[in-house]
Amino acid sequence: MKIATFNINGVNRRLGNLIAWLTMSKPDVVCLQELKATDGQFPKAAIETAGYGAVWRGQAAWNGVAILARDSEPVVTRTELPGDPSDTQSRYIEAAVNGILVSSLYAPNGNPQPGPKFAYKLAWHARLSLHAAALFETGLPVVLAGDYNVVPEPRDIYPTRSYDDNALVQPESRAAFRQLLDQGWIDALRKVYPKEELFTFWDYRRNRWQRNAGLRLDHILMSRKLARRLKDAGIDRDVRGREGASDHAPVWIVLRD
Fold first, then answer.
1. Which residue, of 70, 162, 175, 180, has the greatest Cβ tally within 10 A?
2. What residues does the Endonuclease/exonuclease/phosphatase domain cover (predicted)?
């Protein structure tokens, strides 16, 4: 089984890119983020034509998450992150697909920091940690996939001082990601590539793609039970270089049956 996560940065604007990648890569499960579309604007028909069932939670102009499943229909188990009923931002969806519980998450960016946006980011991550701990304790095979908006370590960003004040690299942000690993979740990319330079995001500005000035923001975390089935993992970097591309590249894992 191949499971992928892809911050599409506007699902309708980049629908051609998405369909081309689905046709080429043929993932069995896809977690999408930053749909930037309401529920009614989600391109269900085009995705079904490509061979995928889908569940989603949209939001006008911002956020939005979805889970796609090839030749099947995901079974929704949750459409929001628990812990704050007043939070109306569409940043989390969870579904069962072929015996695996899959979540697609889009964590807050948190900039500028310090300030209310950074406080929201940390509070959201605290809620994610609580929910993740509960999922981990079930013993079920679980994948937490998406754009965490955290650069976990200094090696996950190109050499620069320009991000020193950015919320993505702050000690509090990195501690929130580390808390998940401390619970026992396995970072799939680092499991397969423990020492390599890995980037999943390249800003559109200042020729960062051309200079390979990237960051690793997109992560697939697996429960320990599922990690035993990990066969391979990777980043479809070439997708970032296509015309009209998202500023993120898809990240994927392959699991043994």
1. 180
2. 4-248
Active site residue 147: yes
Domain boundaries, the chain: 2-255
Show the low-confidence residues of the chain (pLDDT under 50). none
Question: What is the four-CA torsion angle of 185, 233, 49, 102, rounded to 10 degrees?
Answer: -10
- Active-site residue 106, yes or no? yes
Is the whole-model pTM more than 0.90? yes
> Count of residues for the chain?
257
Which member of 28, 52, 92, 147 is catalytic?
147
If we measure between CA atoms, which residue out of 168, 146, 107 comes closest to residue 6?
146
Topology classification of domain 2-255: Deoxyribonuclease I; Chain A (3.60.10)
Per-residue exposure over 9-35, b if at least 16 CB sit within 10 Å of its own CB, e if not: bbbeebeebbbebbeeeebbbbbbbbb
CA distance 27 to 70: 7
β-bridge partners, 164 = none
For 16-28, the pLDDT digits (tens) are: 999 999 999 999 9
